[in-house]
Task: inverse folding
């Protein structure tokens, strides 16, 4: 930008055509968390099949990373709820993300509880 140009007051570096300023960040982190969560589910499935001490660290660490990314997406969902201006699809995605953050915690506890 030039020296005389200013950014708009509601500028977001990640533009998403629906929602508010937090929508773009929320969607990106929700997709990243879902892909990492699928990898964690595969590692957990392998751990259940093998049921050995060698497969536990991979399952537990990938589950923990997926949970942390889901908590980040949940925080952005809460921020998006706070800013208003959403449609029904975003409300559904926010609800699934918030519920998933709780169920992933139980998944991590189940992996560690089955030692």
Result:
């Amino acid at each position: 930008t030039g020296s005389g140009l200013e950014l708009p007051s509601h500028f977001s570096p990640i533009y998403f055509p629906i929602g508010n300023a937090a929508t773009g960040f929320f969607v990106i982190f929700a997709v990243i968390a879902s892909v990492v969560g699928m990898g964690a589910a595969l590692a957990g499935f392998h751990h259940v099949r093998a049921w050995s001490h060698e497969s536990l660290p991979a399952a537990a660490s990938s589950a923990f990373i997926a949970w942390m990314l889901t908590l980040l997406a949940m925080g952005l969902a809460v921020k998006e709820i706070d800013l208003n201006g959403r449609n029904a699809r975003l409300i559904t995605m926010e609800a699934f993300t918030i519920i998933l953050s709780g169920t992933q915690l139980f998944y991590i506890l189940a992996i560690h509880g089955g030692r």
